[in-house]
Amino acid sequence: MSKRILIVEDDPSIRQGLELTLLKTGYEVRTAADAEAGEKLLLELNPDLLILDLMLPGRSGLEFCKRIRKRDSQLPILMLTALSDESDRILGFDLSADDYVTKPFSLRELEARIRALLRRTEASEAVLEILEFGDVRVDFKRYRAWKAGKKVHLPPKAYGVLQSLARSEGDVLSRDCLLEEVWGYDSVPTTRTVDNHVAQLRSVLEDDPVNPVYLLTVHGVGYSFTRDTSDTMEA
């Protein structure tokens, strides 16, 4: 069964060019020129991936992305924009876009990014679904978490960071490795994004976020996760 891709882009030449290219590649493709039409198609198509322009008429792509993430934490979102400012890229990632391409872009590069996003989504379905440690329970499939029996809130990407660390329990993952695994983008201009998500995880899941016992920093290297709290000295 071919993968379904929804393109929400107001520039007709880009929209039509992407549609033609992806149809030739074998994807099922639908398109919309604004967020309102895109939202209707999103519900109708239930796509496997969304390609979303940042600068849409009316409701912006960022606002659209934020609305999507309130009801769907798992849909891969690839942002397109003519803006190259670092703050715009970081804002897109903070709103949980999965990848980011700046116009003008290579169609071959875009296709490669689409394949990578779809592969990562398929792989995530077969990996760790439930994690329990201390008084914490995390359901990665449903993007839900509880501490001491009470439901707590985590940003969608924080689940990805925790899942990556838990899959490699005891090992140290660098910030660049986490960026690649969770965001799928190996040239993000700052690793502060990872630091912020680890800090959010600690603030919600650790009893003492200042002195964590599960989510550990290995200074100069990265982060690690452990359920064994007998030795919680950070390197």
Topology:
Layout: E1 4-8, H1 12-25, E2 28-32, H2 35-45, E3 49-53, H3 61-71, E4 77-81, H4 86-94, E5 99-102, H5 107-124, E6 130-133, E7 136-139, E8 144-147, E9 150-152, H6 156-167, E10 173-174, H7 175-183, H8 192-205, E11 215-218, E12 222-225
Parallel strand pairs: 1-2, 1-3, 3-4, 4-5
Antiparallel strand pairs: 6-7, 7-8, 8-9, 10-12, 11-12
Write a short abstract of this structure.
The chain is α/β, with parallel strands linked by helices and 235 residues long. The protein has two domains: 4-124, Response regulator (Rossmann fold); 130-225, Winged helix-like DNA-binding domain superfamily/Winged helix DNA-binding domain (Arc Repressor Mutant, subunit A), CATH 1.10.10. The chain has helices spanning 12-25, 35-45, 61-71, 86-94, 107-124, 156-167, 175-183, 192-205, and strands at residues 4-8, 28-32, 49-53, 77-81, 99-102, 130-133, 136-139, 144-147, 150-152, 173-174, 215-218, 222-225.
